[in-house]
Amino acid sequence: ASELDLAPTQVRALILGEHGDTMLPLWSSATVGGLPLTEVEGCDGNFQRGIFERTKKSGAEVISRKGGAGWAVGATMAEVIHSIALDRKQLLPVSSLQDGAYGLKEVCLSVPSVVGRSGVEKHLELKLWPKEEQALKASAKALQTMLASVAG
After folding, report:
1. Catalytic-labelled residue, pool 1, 10, 19, 103
2. Is the overall model pTM greater than 0.70, yes or no?
3. Does domain 2-151 have CATH number 3.10.20.30?
4. For residues 9-26, b (16+ Cβ closer than 10 Å) or e, as one string?
5. Catalytic annotation on 82?
């Protein structure tokens, strides 16, 4: 939002996959004031790469400036808890065991999920660009490889 000189409430974007090097931004569904980000002047590939690199480093930046990221984690957890406790059925990018969304199974990673009274009630498959779908599968593979190395 700051890069576009807009209020943060005007920008909507999801990050899927694992929380780390293989996480991926969904540029295909990102919006600014309800308009597709891809149609906003200046939001080209270089802009997207710069924003994503900044996003990947933002956790470390918050920790270095404030000594911890507790507030961000707390705010996110409050949103999830409210969705469960109040049965809000919010669409949230939460990590859960995958049961076939995007062809993924037996791996926990973030995908768009409806969260209500019973927790993750269903996964929604947004239409992804081919490169986004490949990146999501690569994120799942990285997690499965890490799990296999730990499990022995």
Report:
1. 19
2. yes
3. no
4. eebebbebbbeeebbbbb
5. no
